[in-house]
Fold these 2 entries.
Entry 1:
Amino acid sequence: AQTVTQSQPEMSVQEAETVTLSCTYDTSESDYYLFWYKQPPSRQMILVIRQEAYKQQNATENRFSVNFQKAAKSFSLKISDSQLGDAAMYFCASRSYGGSQGNLIFGKGTKLSVKP
Amino acid sequence: DVKVTQSSRYLVKRTGEKVFLECVQDMDHENMFWYRQDPGLGLRLIYFSYDVKMKEKGDIPEGYSVSREKKERFSLILESASTNQTSMYLCASSFMGKETQYFGPGTRLLVL
C-alpha cells in the first residue's frame, strides 16, 4: 500500500522569503503521480503542482517548484517569494499510475504561516 | 472552470439522525470521491464512484453509504449519525484516467 508522510505539521516563513515543505512517500509501483494541494483557510482545496514519476525534470509552476528525488522517495515543495496568500494547509498526495480509478493517498498536511 | 459544489457548508445533526451530504460537479467527470478530513489525520477516502450506480469502498467506509444515480451527483449518507462522525467532508471529481482531482468547498458536520 502507498503511504505519504509529511513530517512538518507546521511551518512559518517571512513574506518574500523561500520555504520548503517536505514529503516522503512509499510505494511499490514503478509509475505514479505526485501532487501538492493547497487548502486556504475556509476555502476550497486546489492543485498547486503535480509530477509524473517517469519524468526526471522537476515540475515548476510560477513560484512553486518541486524537488523530486525518486530513489529517495522524496517530493518536497519549494515556495519562492512567499506571499501572504500562500498561508494555507498544504497536502502532499500520491496516486498509482492507472490504478484504482484515481485514488489519491494524502499526507497529514503542513500548515504554512506567512509573516508580514 | 471545473465546479464542484456541496449542498451545505455547515450542518448540525443529532445522534441517530440520517444525514445526506450532496455533491454535484458540472464537468461530466466519471470519477467522484468522498473524503473525510480531520486535524492531524489528513484526508481519508470514504467511498468513490467511477460510473453511475458504481461504487467502491475507500479506507474508512464503516458507518457510511453512497448513492450515484446520475453522473453529476454523488451523495454520502450517514445512516445513523454518531458523534465520531463530526468532521469536515470533502467531495472531489476527476475524469477517468486523469490524475487531477477537483474539490468542493467542504461540509463541516457537527453531530451532537
Entry 2:
Amino acid sequence: GAVVSQHPSRVICKSGTSVKIECRSLDFQATTMFWYRQFPKQSLMLMATSNEGSKATYEQGVEKDKFLINHASLTLSTLTVTSAHPEDSSFYICSANHRVGNTGELFFGEGSRLTVL
Amino acid sequence: GDSVTQMEGPVTLSEEAFLTINCTYTATGYPSLFWYVQYPGEGLQLLLKATKADDKGSNKGFEATYRKETTSFHLEKGSVQVSDSAVYFCALSDSNYQLIWGAGTKLIIKP
C-alpha cells in the first residue's frame, strides 16, 4: 500500500514552454504533498508544501509564479514549470503524507527528470 | 534549525565488505529518523526508520540505531552486494512531518 505515482518520468521541452508534472497517491488520500527538487550531488531541496484545497506554501527562494502547484483533490497534486529555461533542468520528486502510526513517514513518487533545451 | 549531516561520497567498497555511512543530526524535540535509498534510475524509497531513542531499524541486511546521546543514526551492513550500489539519504522528521535531508552518500560496490 501507500503508492505514489509521478508522471511523466522523463520530459524534454524547448525553452519557453511550460511543463506539467502530476503526482498521484494511488491507494490513499494525501492531505499534504511535498514537492522537491534534486540537483546533482546535492540533497533534495524542498520547494513547496501543498495542502488539498488551499494555496501551496513555498520555501524561501522558490518563485511561486514559475512553479505553479495545484492540489485539487486528495489524490492529485500538479507542479507546472512555466516558461521553462535550461537552468530549470532537474529531477523533481513529490511525496505524500500518509500518517501511519504517527511516525511522520512520507511516500515518494518515482521522480520526473526535466530537461529544457 | 534542525539539520542532518552525513558523510560525503562516493564511498567505494568491494563486494562483501562492511559498510558504515555516518549520519548525525541536530534537532529540538524528539524527531523520527530515516534512511532512504535511491537506486539508479528510480525514485526514493524508505530503507529503514526509528522513531525513538535506542530503536534499531533494519531492512535488507541494513541496520541503524537511534543514538540520542551522540545524536547519530549511522547506517551499517555487514556484507554489501553489487546490488546495494545506490545513493543513501539520512533524514529526520520534525513535528510538522516535514523531512530534513542529509546531502546523500553515493555508494559504489565493485564485484
